[in-house]
Amino acid sequence: MATAEKPVMVVGIDDSEHSIYALEWALTHFFTPLAPNFPFNLVVLHAKPSATSAVGLAGPGAADVLPYVEADLKKIASKVLEKAKEICLSKSVILNLDLLSSTSVFPFDSLPSGLKCGHLCEFPLPNVLYERSFSMQVNEVILEAVEGDPRNVLCEAVEKHHASMLVVGNHGYGAIKRAVLGSVSDYCAHHAHCTVMIVKKPKIKH
């Protein structure tokens, strides 16, 4: 868990341009590179769907498909966190890459090059797929992927890290799609026990 000396900000991220923008926005507005100290410890969190929820298959053939779907989802999760790390580095947020590990997290040093998440299933971690912490100034940055519904994963992360702020992107769904899929940002705004900031990516003017 992030240290309790400073408030914690959780930023939800997936492979969409909306969540990438939300992370960049949060870093730009709250983590000034030349500041002597940052106001928050940072948790960047990706909610990885389960293979069954992603495919929605039933019947005798489903068991044959699920391992391939699971492998793809883990690759996506790896790419999402790698992208988040690149953004943090580009914003000069991460200064020291000192790996912190504990018995409850998966040490990245044990991963093959390229962060091949398909190997993670060999280790007994029920929900937390992997977690990496970086020390920076007197701050802590955690990049984490947790399996589950993003609405629940984000709200649970707020409780786990005692976060004072949650930042999520607005996916810009239309009324029909929003009614069918639901809105992660709307759910978090009503259920997360902290301030929720919903960042909307500006439309490009032609």
Could you describe the 3D structure shown?
The chain has a single domain, classed as Rossmann fold, CATH 3.40.50. It has 6 helices and 6 strands. It has helices spanning 17-30, 51-55, 62-90, 150-160, 175-181, 184-191; strands at 8-12, 41-48, 128-136, 139-147, 165-170, 195-200. The chain has a 6-stranded mixed sheet with strand order 3-4-2-1-5-6, sandwiched between helices. Strand 3 and strand 4 form a beta hairpin. Helix 4 packs parallel to helix 6 (184-191). The N and C termini lie far apart (44 Å).
In short, what is this structure?
The chain is of the alpha/beta class. It has helices at residues 17-30, 51-55, 62-90, 150-160, 175-181, 184-191; strands at 8-12, 41-48, 128-136, 139-147, 165-170, 195-200. The termini are far apart.
**What summary fits the major beta sheet?**
6 strands, mixed
**CATH topology category name:** Rossmann fold
Number of strands: 6
Radius of gyration, in angstroms, nearest whole number: 17 Å
Principal-axes geometry comes out as globular
Question: How would you state the average pLDDT, rounded?
Answer: 73
Q: What is the CATH superfamily?
A: HUPs
Total helical elements:
6
Q: CATH top level?
A: Alpha Beta
Characterize the quaternary organization of these chains.
Answer: single chain
- State the share of residues found in helices, binned by percent: 25-40%
Note the gap between the termini. Answer: 44 Å
The order of strands across the largest sheet is 3-4-2-1-5-6
Low-confidence runs of at least 5 consecutive residues: 95-128, 134-138
Q: Which CATH architecture is right?
A: 3-Layer(aba) Sandwich
Strand content: 15-25%
